[in-house]
Write a structure and sequence with these properties.
The protein has helices at about 5-30, 50-55, 60-70, 70-90, 305-310, and strands spanning about 1-5, 45, 95, 105-110, 110-120, 125-130, 135-150, 155-165, 170-175, 180, 190-195, 195-200, 205-210, 235-240, 245, 255, 260-270, 270-275, 280, 290. The chain is an alpha+beta fold. It has a single domain, classed as Porin (Beta Barrel). Helix 3 (about 60-70) packs antiparallel against helix 4.
Length: about 325
């Protein structure tokens, strides 16, 4: 995805200058940037909790469809569609505020109540609990966030354990891909996902294995051959869970090349996903739902932070 907001791109350039002047060694070595105090001009007007909730704005649509499915393959497809919709809603260029220990956030999107609490600062860890008010499913677990900055790029990871459990007891595990932002100091500013993502059906021992930007050539190979697809393209297949070797420390998971395929997956995370050429989501046809506040909100909610309120008010 090419980023064209010139005003925010200039903010990014200023941020890089600041980081190099203050933390040149960290930048040159690609060390974590999330634990460095940063100037407020480069901040988004949201916290990481709010950004996570924003990603869930299509969740009630697809996870309700999944909950109503009796066929194990069809349910896996709708949960995979949910994952891609979250990636579609995750794009931002300015840095969200790091929540502090004990900070919370709660909201409702459609039929989904969302509760988040910050439980660890180093590494930044979000504990999440989301419940369908009709009790069809829950989302729970934790996400560990990290980001490393280089001279012209930022690479971000979201590890941890995120589960979806349905009313009938079936259990799924989500593994997110990496994020790479290029052009933060020179050239075109782009946002994309890298490596792989997984949806593991722990009940039926199935898995959606998806490779982001699968046709990207290596640095040397890029001089000799052209790409078949756009960088936002993804490709994958539904396989037996035992055919996949997850990497607990990164998004670089492995697939047995002899794995039996139960169906093909392809699409662009910016716009659509298909299973065996049947479209399950199209960005032009399904619009995200609105985020609403709960009638009662805890005093620890991030919306009450003084620094965030002051930034919003200019």
């Amino acid at each position: 995805m090419l980023y064209i907001n010139e005003e925010e791109k200039k903010i990014g350039y200023e941020a890089v200058k600041y980081l190099i002047s203050k933390f040149s060694k960290n930048v040159l070595e690609g060390k974590s940037v999330l634990n460095i105090s940063l100037p407020v001009f480069m901040f988004d007007k949201r916290t990481l909790h709010m950004a996570f909730a924003y990603e869930q704005r299509l969740a009630p649509i697809f996870l309700t469809k999944a909950a109503l499915c009796k066929d194990k393959f069809e349910r896996l497809k709708w949960i995979t569609t949910y994952l891609i919709s979250c990636l579609h809603m995750s794009v931002f260029q300015l840095k969200p505020f790091n929540p502090i220990i004990g900070e919370t956030y709660q909201c409702r999107i459609g039929n989904l109540d969302i509760y988040i609490e910050q439980t660890v600062n180093h590494p930044i860890t979000l504990n999440i609990y989301c419940k369908d008010i009709n009790e069809n499913y829950i989302i729970y677990g934790y996400l560990i966030m990290d980001a490393s900055i280089f001279i012209n790029s930022v690479i971000s990871t979201r590890l941890g354990k995120c589960f979806i459990k349905f009313k009938d007891g079936s259990l799924f595990k989500i593994r997110l891909p990496g994020i790479i932002v290029k052009g933060i100091s020179i050239g075109d500013r782009t946002f994309n996902y890298c490596d792989k993502c997984l949806v593991e059906d722990l009940t039926n021992n199935l898995c959606s294995y998806i490779e982001m930007n699968p046709d990207e050539p290596g640095y040397i190979a890029s001089f000799f051959k052209s790409k078949k697809t756009f960088p936002d393209h993804f490709r994958g297949k539904i396989v037996d869970l035992k055919s996949v070797k997850p990497n607990e420390n990164s998004a670089d998971h492995e697939l047995n090349q002899n794995a039996k395929s139960y169906g093909n997956i392809e699409g662009d995370w910016t716009s659509y996903i298909c299973f065996d050429d049947i479209e399950y989501w199209n960005n032009d046809k399904i619009k995200p739902l609105t985020i609403y506040s709960h009638e009662f909100t805890l005093p620890s909610d991030g919306r009450y932070r003084g620094d965030l309120i002051n930034l919003i008010n200019g």
